[in-house]
Specification:
The protein is an alpha+beta fold. The chain has helices spanning 2-7, 60-67, 81-87, 98-102, 111-115, and strands at residues 20-23, 25-30, 36-41, 44-47, 50-56, 70-75, 90-91, 106-107, 119-120, 129-130, 135-145, 153-165, 170-172, 175-176, 185-187, 190-192.
Amino acid sequence: MNSEKAAYEIEMIKPKILYYGTPVILLNTLNEDGTVNISPISSSWALGEYIILGISIGGKAYENLNRHPECVINIPDPSLWENVENLAPYTGKEPVPDNKKSQGFALGKDKYKISGLTPIQSATVQPSRIKECPLQIEAKVMNVRIPAYDPFFAIVETEAIQVHAHKNILHSENHIDPDKWSPLIYNFRHYFALGESLGKTFRSET
């Protein structure tokens, strides 16, 4: 009984970050010179055909999306965590903003070279896709909003217009097999893979 009670003891805490376990996204946006910037982000959610992104207004992605409202949402699997981490200390923003510089960021223009990933042409948008990512979602930006309660972040509303998937994660023509697909998870600034399946919802079609 005492051990069961201890398991549910609760503390009030003030964590520095609230990345409580969300998929990593590599967001591809178009630079002024036609090259592609790759931004690792971990704030996103989907509702139907719409994907909402949370990004810093001090980064290159925010600048690019306001100028050219298209992107590719690349979703890596756990095998790509080191490629993602290679990108983490670099920004495409020039000059490097003071707040980023103070956090140890450096300028990195060629994000494909830095990450060791491979560009492939998109079907409907100008930014390229990342070949190694099992899911690649071409999207157009519907709205960019800076909330009054926090002027340092932008909420970017996008609409998915073309989805690409590696064949080895498909269950059928239009279904991802959840037993074969695992997104890379960002969990309190550590990288994780999904564990074993626990079951499925009554609405599952596979």
